[in-house]
Every structure is written in C-alpha cells, then in structure tokens.
Amino acid sequence: MKHSLLCYTALFSMTTSLYAFSASCPDILNGKQRLLNSNEVIELCEEFQGKTLLIVNTASQCGFTPQFEQLEQLHQTYKSEGFTVIGFPSNDFRQDRGSEEQSAKICYLDYGVTFPMMARTTLSGPEANPVFSKIQQQAGVKPKWNFYKFLINKEGKVVATFPSSTSPTSTTLKNAIEQQL
Q1: DSSP class of residue 35?
Q2: Ordered structural domains, the chain, with CATH
Q3: 13 CB burial (10 A radius; 0-12, 13-18, 19+)
Q4: Deepest of 56, 116, 142, 144, by most Cβ within 10 A of its Cβ?
C-alpha cells in the first residue's frame, strides 16, 4: 500500500510538472519539427524555451544564400548567452529547388552551418508551418523574400523583424539581439 501511494504521488508529480511545462510553453514553440534531411524530430519547446531566437526562412539558391556564413557567425557569437538561430528552408520563392539533401549540403558543407535547420517548409497559406503562422499573427508580417529574419524574445514573442537585405552581422541586428539577452 505504501509503495502504491509513493508511485501514485510520483506519477501525479510528473504529470503535473509536464502539464505546467506544456502550459508555459509559448505558442510559437508548441509543436514538433523535423530536422533538415533527417528523420529526427525535435520538440521545439524542449529545445528552445527560454532562449532568444532568430528565425530565418532560408533558400539554398538565392542571392542572399551567402548570409548563411554570417548567420553562423551570429550563432557562434551569442549561443553561450542563450541565443539560437533557427533556419527554415522554403521554396515559396522558388529558390530552394531540388532535394532536401542538396539543401543540406549547401547549408552544412558549403557554409558550415551548425545552428538547427528544419525540414523544408511552406511559409504562408493553409499549409503554412505553424511557427510562421504564429509569427504572422504576432508581427503582422510575413516573409517578403528569402532570409527574412524574425527576432523572438525569451517569452516567445516576436520583438523585431528584419528584411532580407539586413545583414545578420549588422549593428542594428546585433544590438536588437543584445537587448534581448
């Protein structure tokens, strides 16, 4: 009887903790995403809750594709302070054609990306990735081109948006990130 009561108490405590964890997860991080060119799926809340994020819609065959290098520099500069860049490849603007394997090669091998890259996704419309649906709800802005950048604070709110033409290592973007750390 005493053992059963202990097990019940432990189970109740774990269930309550899990509920509190999921209840406190920002909407933008509620859900799972598959990693680029992989079968591995991650829980966004588990991985990124409480971090400052720069969410970027990417494309591997765009004039802005070299920004991968600067995004990686940004990621390396601030990752120890609770910051992460997250890339979401998309062919919405017809510049991420071919296979996910090809996109992954460009990201990982050609540009040395170590920050999380999610599976290719759609940015708007009925099939939009839930992360981008939430971004659009919060910011009232949808990506107008590849490499649009959305700064998300630790509470999961969009606090700034940056067009494709904004360099990831620009003073403006770096200052905005530093204000959120």
Answers
A1: B
A2: 26-180 (3.40.30.10)
A3: exposed
A4: 56
Q: Rounded to an integer, what distance in angstroms lies between the CA atom of residue 11 and that of residue 130?
A: 31
Residues with Cβ < 8 Å from 35, sequence gap 6 or more? 41, 42, 116, 117, 118, 119
SS3 state of residue 65 = coil
SS (H, E, C) 103-137: HHHHHHHHCCCCCCEECCECCCCCCCCHHHHHHHH
Of the candidates 25, 45, 62, 107, the residue annotated as catalytic is 62
Encoded tokens for 99: 């296979």
Average pLDDT, the chain: 88
pLDDT tens digits, 27-61: 999 999 999 999 999 999 999 999 999 999 999 99
For 86-109, the pLDDT digits (tens) are: 999 999 999 987 888 999 999 999
Cα-flanking dihedrals φ and ψ of residue 94, to 5°? 60, 35
Amino acid at the residue 174: K
- Tell me whether residue 62 is one of the annotated catalytic residues: yes
